[in-house]
Design a protein that fits this description.
Blueprint lengths: L2 E3 L6 E6 L4 E6 L8 H11 L6 E7 L5 H16 L4 E4 L3 H8 L9 E2 L2 H11 L5
Parallel strand pairs: 3-4, 4-5, 5-6
Antiparallel strand pairs: 1-2, 2-3
Length: 128
């Protein structure tokens, strides 16, 4: 079931709780975003107990600096807790913005959600 978060804020953020991950779907709205709604959604995702967080950017055509800053901040926090944060379906302009950052600061970018699942399987410790 898809849930809507932060409807009054400039960026629309949808979430779906999957068996092995927490999926956030970002979508553009008419106004530039300050990153607050994404930060709110990532905070919930990071507390969900899911072993990974995937961010679907297929409906996000413009990646603002504020949004990038939030993504990098949560990527680093989650890295410390060994929770992969993976970006999927990133557009060309957003990808170019990420290339300006040092590689160590950038979350992994994969072409699809299936690739995100494969990536996370290789990153997570095996459970017994």
């Amino acid at each position: 079931m898809l849930h809507f978060l932060a409807s009054v804020l400039p960026m629309e953020v949808y979430r779906e709780i999957l068996p092995e991950s927490y999926l956030l779907i970002l979508a553009d709205d008419d106004e530039p975003t300050g990153g607050a709604e994404l930060s709110y959604a990532l905070r919930h995702a990071s507390r969900s107990g899911k072993p990974s967080i995937w961010i679907d950017c297929s409906h996000l055509h413009n990646l603002s600096f504020a949004t990038l800053r939030v993504l990098v901040r949560y990527y680093r926090r989650l890295q410390e807790r060994q929770i992969p944060l993976v970006l999927c379906h990133l557009g060309d302009s957003a990808g170019q913005l990420l290339t300006r950052l040092p590689a160590a600061l950038c979350p992994p970018v994969v072409p699809s959600l299936l690739d995100a699942e494969r990536y996370c399987r290789t990153q997570l410790p095996l459970s017994h």
